[in-house]
Write a structure and sequence with these properties.
The protein is mainly β and 391 residues long. Helices cover 2% and strands 36% of the residues. The chain has 1 helix and 42 strands.
């Protein structure tokens, strides 16, 4: 086993709470107390470029971006590192001055490297040399993303992130990325799947993330999970993505709990969720998607569903109809959500024995009513807009 240079607090945690299990986000690796820090900025820092800092750093070091906007692309990370900023609105790393002028992705993470990106925005990645997927990050190692925004990146597939290793994203947003298709290195057509994320042969978990406004030429306007890949999604919002088939296109194995998948668009039935693998879905809302909410193929026959809200009622669902969602908005917390409106049937409708999150996507406490709510947002009657009209 490769020796780590990080202080690892823990991975995915599940603690017994009565008959159910409480699900909480995993804890990313943390640097040791005496970790070396290398600052990056145009003038006056230890390094003028991220690649220079990466090359000079010893494993376990912190590479801290000081520039509010730093322009650099094609960075290869081949060792255990932290790459940190001052917040997603305070530190932007861009591949070029604009998406159209970009010719490369931002980061390539090598096999064997454990890399933590935190408090950053990554934008305008557009690889034009093969491989042409993963506009912001191509990952073959162990990747952690915490409080990051990946936006306005483009690839032939995987507009923002192509995962062929292990990826965990916590409190992140994937916005307005594009899997545009094209031609591969051997002259074959690249179909363009995974508007934000394509999980090829890797393992991925997403916690409290928002995936919105992305576009894929073919499958998975938000996410394409391939046959040899596994994906876990907990308390995520998937909204306003566009593709030919589905916002989330499932092959391989997928587990989805307390997510909201709404208002996505496609050219065929199953605009929300297309299941052609083994899926375990619980306490989730899939509704208001343009061409139907869920389609389950014969390959997905072994999937299981518990307390699933399917708006059009055409798939295995416990609830159907309009769940009464507010617009995608900043409702508190680091990522955007669809609030449950007063009177929503999703309030207090979750199965108590399936999963028990301690907090919702925003970090607000769960179980504010008689039971947990479906989806990524927990309704609080004491702060809702109709509180002044209650008797």
């Amino acid at each position: 086993m490769r020796k780590t240079t990080f202080m690892v607090i823990g991975l995915a945690i599940a603690t017994a709470v009565g008959a159910a299990a409480q699900i909480v986000p995993p804890t990313p690796p943390r640097p040791v107390a005496d970790a070396v820090e290398i600052t990056v900025c145009r003038r006056g820092c230890a390094a003028a470029s991220i690649q220079e800092a990466v090359d000079r750093a010893s494993p376990g070091s912190i590479v801290r971006i000081v520039d509010p906007i730093h322009t650099e692309c094609g960075v290869t990370v081949d060792k255990d590192l932290f790459i940190s900023g001052a917040g997603s609105s305070g530190t932007i790393i861009q591949a070029s001055e604009s998406l159209d002028s970009s010719t490369d992705r931002l980061f390539w993470v090598n096999d064997g490297a454990t890399v933590v990106f935190e408090d950053l925005t990554l934008q305008y990645g557009r690889p034009t040399d093969c491989p042409k997927g993963g506009g912001a990050i191509l990952n073959y190692g162990m990747l952690w993303l915490e409080r990051c925004v990946l936006r306005r990146n483009r690839g032939q597939c995987a507009g923002a992130l192509l995962n062929d290793g292990f990826t965990t994203a916590i409190d992140c947003m994937f916005l307005d990325n594009h899997a545009a298709g094209g031609t591969t290195q051997i002259g074959m057509p690249a179909r363009g799947s995974g508007g934000a994320i394509k999980n090829t042969r890797g393992e991925m978990s997403l916690w409290n993330c928002t995936i919105a406004g992305n576009q894929a030429k073919l499958r998975g306007g938000a996410i394409k999970n391939c046959c040899e890949a596994s994906l876990d999604m907990f308390q995520c919002t998937v909204s306003g993505n566009r593709s030919s088939v589905a916002a989330i296109h499932v092959r391989g194995s997928v587990r989805i709990a307390h997510c909201t998948i709404a208002l996505n668009h496609s050219n065929s039935y199953g605009s929300g969720l297309y299941v052609a693998g083994i899926a375990e879905i619980s306490n989730t809302i899939v509704a208001l998607n343009e061409w139907g909410d869920v389609i389950v193929t014969d390959d997905g026959a072994g999937s299981t569903f518990a307390s699933l809200w399917v708006g059009d009622g055409r798939a295995a669902s416990s609830y159907s109809g309009d769940p009464l969602l507010g617009p995608l908005a900043d409702n508190g917390g680091p990522t955007w959500t669809h609030a449950l409106l007063p009177g929503s049937g999703a309030i207090d409708a979750a199965s108590p024995g399936v999963d028990v999150p301690a907090a919702d996507q925003r970090g607000a406490p769960r179980a504010r009513g008689e039971a947990l709510d479906l989806g990524a947002f927990e309704f609080d009657a004491t702060t809702s807009d109709d509180r002044e009209h209650s008797d």
